[in-house]
């Protein structure tokens, strides 16, 4: 049996939740997508809205093949691997299992550890609470910066200068600060049109 097949059959990862929904953010906003939220995160964002994901041990270990078959059964053309912080794990077996079902692999990550696995789309969302590993800059297809206060525009530019020229640039208001920050983001994007606005439209649609 080839090594990767053996690995796919044996590999498990902590899974907090999984659901079929509409991608609410960034480049694929509005597209049907199956989310796999892995447990475990050591980044520690103060405004994190999924703090229950942080403790990996609190979530069941699920076989990567089982995860891939759940995506397949849903009919979704896209699997989004999120967290938590998925790059804490070796994602080679998970992405191989999903791709063997001819499903696209997307990841949402703060890039704090080197990325493993085979990815069709990498959304890099840096966080101030833990610096990213520099290897993510050449892998990111999308840079999504959460804007919590005015200083975040300069911080966002520091990453825009490091990613590939083709990388899509998004500014997204932090949900609890949206009323305050969205008008500033609108003016910023008008003055710096290489950026686009990302809104968490799934929250407006009342879907996960
Ligand atoms: Fe929460 Fe994501 Fe920050 Fe981890 S990286 S603390 S899951 S927002």
Brief sketch in words of this structure:
With 208 residues, this protein is of the alpha/beta class.
CATH top level?
Alpha Beta
What is the percent of helical residues?
Answer: 25-40%
Number of strands: 9
> What is the residue-mean pLDDT, rounded to a whole number?
96
Order of helices and strands: HEEEHEHEEEHEHEH
Low-confidence stretches: none
Largest sheet: 9 strands, mixed
Q: How do the strands of the widest beta sheet line up side by side?
A: 3-1-2-4-5-6-7-8-9
Give a written overview of the molecule.
The protein has 208 residues and is an alpha/beta fold. The protein has a single domain (3-204), classed as Aldolase class I (TIM Barrel, Alpha-Beta Barrel), CATH 3.20.20. Helix content is 26%, strand content 25%. The protein has six helices and nine strands. It has a nine-stranded mixed sheet. Helix 1 crosses helix 3 (92-99). It starts with a helix and ends with a helix. The chain binds iron/sulfur cluster (SF4). Iron/sulfur cluster is lined by residues 41, 43-45, 48, 50, 53, 83-85, 110, 127.
Topology:
Blueprint: H1 3-10, E1 12-22, E2 32-38, E3 61-63, H2 64-74, E4 78-82, H3 92-99, E5 104-109, E6 121-124, E7 142-147, H4 152-160, E8 168-173, H5 178-191, E9 195-197, H6 201-204
Parallel strand pairs: 2-4, 4-5, 5-6, 6-7, 7-8, 8-9
Antiparallel strand pairs: 1-2, 1-3
Helix pairs in contact: 1-3, 2-3
Bound molecules: iron/sulfur cluster.
């Amino acid at each position: 049996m080839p090594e990767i097949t053996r690995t796919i059959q044996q590999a498990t990862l902590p899974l907090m939740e999984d659901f079929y929904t509409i991608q609410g953010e960034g480049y694929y906003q509005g597209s049907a997508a199956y989310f796999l939220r892995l447990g475990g995160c050591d980044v520690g964002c103060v405004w994190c809205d999924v703090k229950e994901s942080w403790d990996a041990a609190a979530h069941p270990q699920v076989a990567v093949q089982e995860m891939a078959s759940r995506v397949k059964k849903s009919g979704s053309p896209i699997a989004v691997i999120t967290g938590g912080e998925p790059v804490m794990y070796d994602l080679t077996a998970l992405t191989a299992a999903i791709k063997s079902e001819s499903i696209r692999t997307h990841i949402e990550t703060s890039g704090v550890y080197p990325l493993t696995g085979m990815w069709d789309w990498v959304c890099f969302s840096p966080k101030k609470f833990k610096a990213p590993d520099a290897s993510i800059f050449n892998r990111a297809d999308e840079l999504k910066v959460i804007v919590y206060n005015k200083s975040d525009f300069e911080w966002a530019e520091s990453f825009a200068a490091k990613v590939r020229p083709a990388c899509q640039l998004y500014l997204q208001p932090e949900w609890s600060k949206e009323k305050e920050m969205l008008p500033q983001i609108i003016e910023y994007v008008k003055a710096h049109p290489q950026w686009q606005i990302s809104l968490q439209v799934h929250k407006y649609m009342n879907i996960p």
